[in-house]
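subagent[fold] <- orchestrator: predict structure for attached chain, return tokens only, no commentary.
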Amino acid sequence: MGSDNKALTLAEISIHNNSKDCWVIINAKAYDVTNFLADHPGGDEVLLAAAGKDASEEFEDAGHGSAARLMLDEFYAGEMDPSITETRSKYVPPKQLREDEEKSSGLLAKLLLILVPLAILGLGSAGLHLFSLLPST
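subagent[fold] -> orchestrator:
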């Protein structure tokens, strides 16, 4: 996996970018986190979005504690080649709904919860009224 101490290039790491083969770069070290996808507390989508890319900044920003840092050793795959000056692929976090989108969709759902039963009740009343106006035979 990374036991031959060969320095890895970004091109070599970037091919490990799916749920069956998922590597991330954190602080110039590559980690094979494929077997950790299902157990990651933030969900597998966080790791998959960072697959094959440098997620150092996001790892630090997430506030990972010492336990998470110790776990990295278990997934170590190799070092990034420090002499390579290639541009690292940047991690792009998964798209999340903006707060105003969440509020508007929540408001719409609440509105529908009120309007749909009222519409059904109104149509039922109108039908009953029309039925009562029919001449009896």
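orchestrator: received. Logging for downstream: Helices lie at 10-14, 44-50, 56-61, 66-75, 99-133. Residues 99-133 form the longest helix (35 residues).
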